[in-house]
Amino acid sequence: MTQFSINGRGYAAEPAPGQCLRTFLRDLAVFGVKKGCDAGDCGACTVHIDGKPFHSCLVPAFRAEGREVTTIEGLSGCGNDLHPTQQAFRDAQAFQCGFCTAGMIMTAVTLTDAQKADLPHALKGNLCRCTGYRSIDDALHGRCNIEADLPGRALGASLPNPFTDAILTGTARYTMDVAVADLLHLKVLRSPHAHARIVTVDKAAALAVPGVVAVYTWEDVPKRRFTSALHEDHLVDPDDILLLDDVARFAGQRVAAVVAETEAAAEAGCRALQVTYAVLPAVFDPVAAIAPGAPLLHDKDHVESNSNIYCTLQGEIGDVAQGFAQADVVHEETYSTTRVQHAHLETHGSIAWKGEDGRWHVRTSSQAPFVVRTKLAYVMGLSPRDIHVFTERVGGGFGGKQEMVSEDLVLFATMKLGRPVKWEWTREEEFIGATTRHPMTTRVKIGARRDGTLTALDVEVFSNTGAYGGHGGETLAAAMGSPIAAYRCPNKKGIGHAVYTNMVPAGGFRGYGASQTTFAIEGALDALAGQLGIDPFTMRRKNVVQPGDNVESIWKEPSDASFGSHGIGECLDIVERALATGNGVAKPEGADWAEGRGIALAMLECGPPTEHRSGAEMRLLPDGTYHLACGSTEMGNGITTAHKQIAAAILGTRVEAVAIINADTDRTPYDTGTFASTGTVVGGKAVHLAAQAMVEDVLDFAGRHTGVPRDQCRLDEDGVICGNRRIALSDLHAEGAKVDHRFMVTRRAYLSPRTIAFNVQGVRLAVHRVTGEIRVLHSVHAADIGKPINPMQCRGQLDGAVAMGYGWALVETMVHDREGRMVNPQLRNCRIPTFADTPHTEIYFADTVDSIGPLGAKSQGECGINPVAPAIANALADATGVRFTHLPFTPDRLFTTLSAA
Ligand code: FES
Ligand code: FES
Fold first, then answer.
1. Rounded distance from Cα 398 to ligand 2 centre (Å)
2. How is the chain split among helix, strand and coil, in percent rounded to 5?
3. What's the CATH code of the domain at 49?
4. Are residues 390 and 474 in the same domain?
5. Is there a contact between 513 and 474 (Cβ–Cβ < 8 Å)?
6. Is residue 654 classed as helix, strand or coil in its secondary structure?
7. Where does the 2Fe-2S ferredoxin-type domain start and stop, copy by copy (predicted)?
């Protein structure tokens, strides 16, 4: 046995041939070492070897022999105190999901002062997808962002995440951070063809690989079609997927699953499979896919009239032809947006096993465990009661985990083999096999009178839903909803098609369809304002919807969305003021640099357009503290912190006095899932109602117990004051126990009616006319999110959303070849933003209190992404006179366009 020293402790162990240090450490249950890529790109696996930072996925394990290896678990030595860098991350709350944090800290502790002064360079090897790096910058410059937890002061306080210390010390347990006895590993072979019939799969060579225990193909699995999209109403998505199919409809689709004693054996088994494909004609573009004679992907159950159109949405209010006839100026242009991936640092994965209770247990990285349970029960022919689905800590989601893409095969294999089975996706699988944002092409025609009053708006959208249709209709509905409804205009018309193509399927992604058409409409409005010689702020103020207006896009039917608060005017004022004040950053010197300023706004109906429900259960515990159970998933969205604060605010206590569990089908009330802002507006509402019910329950009992009228009783942190008497809650609980009063309440909340949030982004940038390089000089964002429950956290969510917007607009590109295969399925080549790519953004809030959302709050992190790309496009147009209508704005594209202009 080889001797290793890890965190000051000796280990005698033998790495497998070729094994990297990352997997070796995790095999020893050192789970603070994370995997984001296994390619040296993300830094989540950073450890110290003899005090120097290394990406452990790039280091052969045997090289650590005789060296001192330190991971996040060993950073602070034997004491319980945090290392100063951990403490700095605590004070600044420099994380959201926390999946990158251990690696980030291990790099950060080695930085010199000179390196800290140049973080874009010093942190180039560590990626964070959640924070936009601002809070990390705060931590490394000694800024403190948190406040004290005071009784009755929870609402509006910047309180730390309750799991802070676990995240910072590497003891927080994410989906794959568990050692399971007798575990089998699943891997899949994915199709190299974008469209092919699978004629035969010869399993013999794979089954002969030592360690392989089973191989499954389409012939072995249940034949119930389902959708991987996770919605309350399964009818809003087409049931067009099988566990394993005999037709591959995109390059990257699962063809066969191999289960083995080790991951390496499962991968070797995949490589040994002999598959005979009959390659079919493929189509990748939605317009080509609806042309006569285009290859068809699905049978008529899933499409409109023997075509590749999954669904069409259309409508008209007023008379658009007449509206254009009344217009003095008309602008018409086609805008297109690209496919990008969520790139949450924790990849998809799940583990399933049969429990001693005879039921099936699934530990998964999901935004919607309850709907996963329902879907698994349907596909496997089980009762939902026989399945338990839960999350531990989830390392980011952004909509990418609103899909059932791993749990199905894992449960199937476990049920077949009777042993626990795990499937952890690789980064490449995330790019080629998970969902992406829907690329959309949007033609906008917009007309106005000379004074800027809009007279007509006509929108046509082609959405590329890829090989499967999950989220295709809902994202299209969102695309044709808020961005059109944001403006008063008597005549609006739209038609949109979600079209199947032989591309990787699209799905839910922060902004959910509205991001794409916001890019188009905000660009078109800006161009129209330019034609009229009207300032962009004035143009928006003149036309944006106002309280009392009907919130309508292209449909005459009444909407359930209304203004619980209306802060768009204030957001516009804030951004205008901030840009006018400036930040002192000058454009680079040289005649080739042009400077421009652009803004865009976005409106969001908070919550999905279809049904959604959440429950919360609250108990008073014998020690006088509270226990809250809520089905929402914590994935870096800060929902556990927000829910605790809502509860503590109602109960008049400290947040610390409210313990929470979440996202567990056995232990928490039902919750549709955490997406589209529902964690705050629906889950938060359920918590609000449950806490109110708990107050009533406690005061009613206290009044009865003391004989003091109920209206003379009130909660006082950890006690109740009844008249002149104060009773500790622990004593009250004891009195309740004597008469079997349980102090337990459960409440449910539903989505409708939905309130509306607004965001405005302002950008001042410089663009180099020759090289196409863009430098963001000033970035300002104002959000109307109602009452911020936790301002620090809300700012962090917006930092992350805006950073994602910059990534989408400027650097992220999924490149596919002519056969539909992705050629850059790596973080370094697809380019999610690094520290250096992410401008610092000033974040402001409108001072509003929402009348619909819980305690005045509404959507926080969803909509911030939407105005970023159009604001950049508008700034580019201002700088160069050229309107860029296709994302992303990479230097090569800008160079080509500008040199032709
Ligand atoms: S997992 Fe090692 S750098 Fe990403
Ligand atoms: S906190 Fe950095 S990836 Fe989530």
1. 11
2. 30, 25, 45
3. 3.10.20.30
4. no
5. yes
6. coil
7. 1-75
Q: At what angle do helices 407-417 and 369-380 cross, to 10 degrees?
A: 50
Same domain, 366 and 467: no
Report how far ligand 2's centroid is from the alpha carbon of 345 (Å): 7
Q: Is 827 close to ligand 2, i.e. is its CB under 6 Å away?
A: no
| pLDDT tens-place string over residues 596-651 | 999 999 999 888 777 889 999 999 999 999 999 999 999 999 999 999 999 999 99
Has residue 341 been placed in a domain?
no
Based on the domain organization, do 110 and 226 belong to the same domain? no
Half-sphere exposure at residue 128, Cβ-oriented, CA atoms within 13 angstroms: 32
Q: Which atom of ligand 2 is nearest to the CA of 345?
A: 3
286: left (phi over 0), alpha (psi -120 to 50) or beta: alpha
For the question of whether the overall pTM of this predicted structure is more than 0.70, the answer is yes
- The answer, yes or no, to whether residue 497 has pLDDT greater than 90, is yes
Q: What is the pLDDT of residues 554-603, one digit of tens each?
A: 998 878 888 999 999 999 999 999 999 999 999 999 999 999 999 999 99
Q: Which three-class secondary structure string do you get for 306-361? A: CCCEEEEEEEEECCHHHHHHHCCEEEEEEEECCCCCCCCCCCCEEEEEECCCCCEE
pLDDT tens for residues 762-788? 999 999 999 999 999 999 999 999 999
Ligand 2, from 93, 133, 136, 345: best to mutate by most atoms within 8 Å of Cβ? 345
Block residue for tokens 């795990």: 422
Main-chain dihedrals φ then ψ at residue 586, nearest 5 degrees:
-90, 155
Neighbours of 5 (CB within 10 A): 15
Probe target for ligand 1 pocket from 20, 31, 38, 107, with the most ligand atoms within 8 Å of CB: 38
- Average pLDDT of the residues of the chain: 96
CATH number, position 255? 3.90.1170.50
Token pair listed for 749: 């909340």
Asked whether residue 305 is assigned to any structural domain, the reply reads no
Cis peptide leading into residue 753 (ω within 30°): yes
Compute the average pLDDT of residues 799-803: 97
Q: Dump strand ranges (E) for 144-195.
A: 184-190
Does 737 share its domain with 830?
A: no
Does ligand 2 have an atom closer than 6 angstroms to the CB of 807? no
Let me know the angle formed at the C-alpha of 510 by 506 and 515, rounded to the nearest 5 degrees: 85
Q: What is the CATH number of the domain that holds 658?
A: 3.30.365.10
Residues 582 and 646 in one domain: no
Give residue 731's Cα distance to chain centre.
43
Q: How far is CA 69 from the centre of its chain?
A: 33
Residues 427 and 483 in one domain: no
Question: How far is residue 510 from each of residues 317, 320, 326, 507, 542, measured CA to CA in Å?
Answer: 28, 31, 37, 10, 28
The whole domain housing 469 covers 440-608+753-900
Count: domains in the chain: 4
